[in-house]
Amino acid sequence: MGENGDNNIEVVAADHGDSMMDKEEDFSSESEEEEEEDVGKESKPDKQKKGWFSSMFQSIAGKANLERSDLEPALKALKDRLMTKNVAEEIAEKLCESVAASLEGKKLASFTRISSTVQTAMEDALVRILTPRRSIDILRDVHAAKEQRKPYVVVFVGVNGVGKSTNLAKVAYWLQQHNVSVMMAACDTFRSGAVEQLRTHARRLQIPIFEKGYEKDPAVVAKEAIQEATHNGSDVVLVDTAGRMQDNEPLMRALSKLVNLNNPDLVLFVGEALVGNDAVDQLSKFNQKLADLSTSQNPRLIDGILLTKFDTIDDKVGAALSMVYISGAPVMFVGCGQSYTDLKKLNVKSIVKTLLK
Ligand SMILES: Nc1nc2c(ncn2[C@@H]2O[C@H](COP(=O)(O)OP(=O)(O)OP(=O)(O)O)[C@@H](O)[C@H]2O)c(=O)[nH]1
Ligand SMILES: [Mg+2]
Question: Which of 9, 12, 105, 342 has the smallest number of CB atoms closer than 10 Å to its CB?
Fold first, then answer.
């Protein structure tokens, strides 16, 4: 068994339990309590430690008919703050505009009112950014495909080492919890150890795997896997692919062929939240190459995003926004650790909370 494969697996395999995809996180009540507390403390003259947010926005509390000029310092501070969290300048400006629009012309007596107005404006603006042209309900689409007796096919693509195979296994685990039957297709026929790595996940999750070893054309392996899934009535085929740099022409050509030949239901771009704006560049180049190398009139592009290693980024959540913003594809999954359960939905409230911290 390839060393690569085993190293990755040991960490991942440990636990079982409900996938975090189905857990609702509630941040609102907690943050309100914090605010109230802050206000109480702010009013004491000997208060030592001020949050940046309260120190910027406190000064406008109680002012009648807030004008743009009253807001400028706070907006400037907000923009700078957002940019330290990897929010691209253009997006930071949009967010600040929404905040300005929500405050201008108003008289907000208390700091708490200002704080909640800003929070709501940020949330609305982020929902607008993060709810792109196409939203995808994967479970609904899986069931629709099942009614047509076709497997629903997802292809995982991305550069090397971002977490494609690990997160493919997490998605499989989540689908299993929804009584969806899954088959894995080992179409990374390039990197040594890749097939064994996927086989180990398949064995641990007791999921069938379709594999043809190495040096085969991954497009053909995927096609055979889909045929097999159609025969044996699998609901979903999850296609693992080799990592490739966005500028590697031969590998991008092979990926384009795989996508064109198999016309999957979902092309999922896997990107590290960690690398910040580099992931944005990868995503646009993948889309560009898929468009340029396609043989079809209407080339298939990236449909959705799986953001990995969210557990390692601290408060640098900005790349998630940029990726959706430039591609129009929604963040469908967020990988947040190395266990099978560590897969979440993107939570806008938690992002707002992180951005305003
Ligand atoms: N902390 C953390 N680590 C992760 C996450 N997802 C994947 N990893 C780790 O990232 C490393 C690479 O994961 P793989 O799944 O092998 O990545 P890959 O994209 O398939 O890699 P290649 O096939 O070589 O291109 C492994 O050590 C994983 O355990 C995550 O959400 N959080
Ligand atoms: Mg892999």
Answer: 105
Ligand 1, CB within 6 Å, residue ranges: 8, 11-12, 158, 160-167, 188, 191, 194, 243, 308-309, 311-312, 335-338, 342
Residues 23 and 347: their CA atoms lie apart, in Å, by 11
The secondary structure element, H or E, covering residue 108 is none
Which atom of ligand 1 is least distant from the CA of 194?
A: 23
pLDDT in tens, 166-225: 999 999 999 999 999 999 999 999 999 999 999 999 999 999 999 999 999 999 999 999
345 Cα: distance to centroid of ligand 1 (angstroms): 18
Domains in the chain with CATH codes: 3-23+136-347 (3.40.50.300), 28-42+51-130 (1.20.120.140)
Answer for the pair 243, 164: CB distance below 8 angstroms, yes or no: yes
Ligand that lies nearest to the alpha carbon of residue 158, given by its number in the listed order:
1
State residue 135's pLDDT score.
Answer: 73
